[in-house]
Amino acid sequence: MQTSRRNVAPVADNGDSSDKLDQLLLSSVICNGEDLGPFVRKAFAAGKPEPLLHQLRRFARSKESEIEEVCKAHYQDFIMAVDDLRSLLSDVDSLKSSLSHSNELLQSVAGPLLASLNAFVEAQNISRNVSLALESVQICIRLMELCSRANFHLSANNFYMALKCVDAIERDFIEKAPSSTLRKMLENQIPAIRSHIEKKVSKEFGDWLVEIRIVCRNLGQLAIGQASSARQREEDLRIKQRQAEEQSRLSLRDCVYALEEEDEDDLVNGAAGDDAKEKYSNGGSGLLDFDLTPLYRAYHINSTLGLEDRFKQYYFENRKLQLTSDFQVSSMTPFIESHQNFFAQIAGFFIVEDRILRTGGGLISKFEVESLWETAVIKMCSVLEDQFSRMQTASHLLLIKDYVSLLSVTLRRYGYPVDPLLDVLSKHSDKYHELLLSGCQKLIGEALAADKFDQMLMKKEYEYSMDVLAFQLQTSDIIPAFPYIAPFSSTVPDCCRLVRSFIEDSVSFMTYGGQLDFFDVVKKNIERLLEEVLDGELVKLINTSVHGVSQAMQVAANMAVMERACDFFFRHAAQLSGIPLRMADRGRRQFPLKNARDAAEGMLSGLLKAKVDGFMMLTENVIWMGDEPSPNGNEYVNEVIIYLETLVSTAQQILPLQVLKRVLEDVLSHISETIVGVLVGDSVKRLNFNAIAGIDIDIRLLESFTETQPHLFADEDANQLKSTLAEARQLINLLLSNNPENFLNPVIRERSYSLLDCRKIVTVSEKLKDPSDRLFGSFGGRALKQNTRKKSLDALVKRLKEVSLN
To answer: Is the pTM of this model over 0.70?
Structure first.
């Protein structure tokens, strides 16, 4: 048993107070376990260490009694502890014997259990080894199964599944392989298998690259052919629409309605096209046996192998090289023969690229496709510019333009911008029309040179339909009886066919060329063809090949028919251009063949005038100083009237009445001028009033001829014919007037003598001699009357001379 330690304070004695104080401080420091250093330094510093030693000894003696008391107290506790230990020792002996007995019992019981435990531990170790062996066997079985499946897929060219098996082996089994030999074999074979698959896929992709070039050309031809068929259907629909509009324009009440039925072939083609698109989206096209599977397979395998970016680059570079190869134009084959394959190859290329862009899963980017297209457009524009600059045949330009426009329509459906191609076509529009005009000029010249100036004979209705109705040359809607003799020669339908062909070629070139409103361009070129080419060739024909009245009459009749044909040309161009006829008629200029028409009518009039001049030479037989006027007219006028009547009876079968009227006006005006010219000319030295009266009878006969034509002309036209004789009539009326001085009256002159020339009046009046001037003058009232008239004329002549002098 332990007791607590107590601090005992020193007992104070009766010593010196300072020593006591020091002793108390020292005791307190020692009891508290503090440092005695300050006391020691103080003692040595004062040079008095003895008091300190004395105090320390005193303190030690004071503590000895206390130590004894403590030892006494602790001894009692020690005795009591020894007693306790002795009692405890006896308990330990009894416990030891108990433990020994328990140990014997435990040994007897635990011996069999330890043997069982050892057997269990051994069995557990065996079980663990067997489990490890079974796990290794299972791993080997699964590994062999994967290897077998990989070999099967490889033999079946199912490379993606083979790679999946190889990846599974590498990921799940190569680290778990129980055999190091097996592990090394797998580590060597897996890269070899991947390399083998990569080579096989690369070979298939290379074969696909070779095959796709042929497929692209066929695909491009098919797509462009479908665009051409669609365009043809649109054209057929426009033709039906124009026919319906024409029918409704001719008869607004009798409208015909019909249901439009789709052609079964179109439906089949449309269904086939949809099916083809569906198959194409999945990688193939049934129509062309076109398959994208090798490409997508190669892309997928390379993506699985981790070579996706490299394959993308490889694909793009190879396709770019193929496109560059497609740009090569053979110098051995004319471009007109190879242009379809050239453009079809490019069209098919970009159709394939568009499909790959949309279904390839990022194999090619939109930017790359646009880059390829920009390159292709630049090259195609360059080729077109070069080839167009070399071509000298309009039909070749048209063929290439049509195919390029179909190419543009085809590729525009896939979203490719084709405006640069259309701009090239528009740029060469002027050259095309120049070549077209040149070719038409040659053909028109040949057609005109082959004309026999004979009226066409049509034996069958189809000939009438082909040569007359086709160009709207008919003057009546009634089909004539056959055989039918047309009023025109074969030149007219031949030229009409050439002009119509020109119009159709012009519209064909301008259509689908990027310019929507092109009718003004077509109209301008038609006017050039008519005014510069056809009009010029006709004028040349008239001036060089027309030598007789019948030929001139036929050409004039042809020109009248061509005037109707020109209206048809502009309407036909408007219909082909999709322009309403009312807009086409708006702003129409004068007859474009006006020069040829005027030349034809002038040639006919000139020949007729020459013929009439032959009859007018009979004026030499007129007795200018006769005693009596001829009651039936002079000989020349009778011959002229007989000829004119014969002319009218013949010409009315060929010439339109307005043309005949203009020709007759010209001829009658020439006769009037000739009569006045004879009276004024030097061939007549003198004449009397009887001769003037005879001329008056001649003019009356001519006027009677014009008055007998109302069955051909309207009254107004007949009056215009009669007015062509006005100059001769006014001169004779003035010479036979009782008051010729009325000529000086402005009002009467304007009304009755507006065409007379004062100098001619003076000349004729001076030639007019009074009968009394002859050697044996006549006597009587008539002579007196004539004398009076002569005096009036003399007075008029005098006044006219005075006026002219002033």
So the answer is: no
Number of Cβ within a 10 Å radius of residue 14: 6
Question: What percent of the chain shows pLDDT beyond 90?
Answer: 2
Q: Report d(CA 185, CA 163) in Å as an integer.
A: 17
- Which of 691, 523, 530 shows the shortest CA–CA distance to 623? 691
The secondary structure of 456-522, three-state, reads EEECCHHHHHHHCHHHCCCCCCCCCCCCEEEEEECHHHHHHHHHHHHHHHHHHHHCCCCCCCCHHHH
- Which structure tokens are listed for 199? 């080579």
Q: In 251-334, which ranges are continuous DSSP H helix? A: 264-281, 293-304, 308-326
Dihedral sign computed on CA atoms, order 562, 567, 570, 573 = negative
Phi, psi for 458 (deg, rounded to 5) = -115, 120
Q: Which of 229, 224, 217, 428 is nearest to 342 (CA)?
A: 217
Could you tell me which residue, 715 or 498, shows the higher pLDDT? 498
Tell me the three state secondary structure of residue 284.
Answer: strand
> What does DSSP assign to residue 773?
G
Q: Encoding tokens for residue 801?
A: 């001379």
Instruction: Name every residue whose Cβ is closer than 8 Å to that of residue 531 and which is 6 or more positions away in sequence.
Output: 592, 593
Q: What is the C-alpha to C-alpha distance for residues 588 and 566, in angstroms, rounded to an integer?
A: 11
Checking if the pLDDT of 278 tops 70, the result is: no
Residue with tokens 């079985």: 141
Tell me the pLDDT of the chain averaged across its residues: 79
Pairing of strands 455-458, 290-291: unpaired
C-alpha span between 4 and 595 (Å, rounded): 158
Q: For residue 612, how many C-alpha atoms fall within 13 Å in the half-sphere facing its CB?
A: 25
Encoding tokens for residue 506?
């012009």
CA angle 495–498–500, rounded 5-degree value: 105
CA angle 159, 163, 167 (to 5 degrees): 175
List, for residues 535-550, the tens digit of each pLDDT value.
Answer: 888 888 888 888 888 8
Q: Which amino acid is at 558?
A: N
φ/ψ of 731, rounded to 5, equals: -65, -45
Residue appearing with tokens 């051909």? 712
Residues in Cβ contact with 796 at an 8 Å cutoff, skipping those fewer than 6 apart = 740, 741, 743, 744, 761, 765
Considering 204-208, 252-256, 655-659, the range whose residues carry the highest mean pLDDT is 204-208
CA angle 602, 453, 568 (to 5 degrees): 75
Burial of 654 (0-12, 13-18, 19+ CB in 10 A): buried
HEC per residue, 622-686: CCCCCCCCCCCCCHHHHHHHHHHHHHHHHHCCCCCHHHHHHHHHHHHHHHHHHHHHHHHCCCCCC
Measuring CA to CA, how many Å separate 514 from each of 381, 434, 462? 15, 20, 38
Q: Under 8 Å CB-to-CB from 753, ≥6 apart: which residues?
A: 730, 733, 734, 743
Helix-helix angle 335-359:264-281, to 10 degrees: 60
The residues facing 455 across adjacent strands are 489
- Cα 264 to Cα 224, 239, 268, 308, 493: the distances in Å are 21, 20, 6, 47, 39
Residue 532 neighbours by CB under 8 Å, 6+ apart: 437
| Helix %, strand %, coil % of the chain (to 5) | 75, 0, 20
CA gap 110, 52 in Å, rounded: 75
* Dist. CA 777–CA 769, nearest whole Å: 11
492-529 pLDDT per residue, tens: 888 899 989 888 888 888 877 656 677 788 888 888 88
Backbone angles phi, psi at 291, to 5 degrees: -130, 125
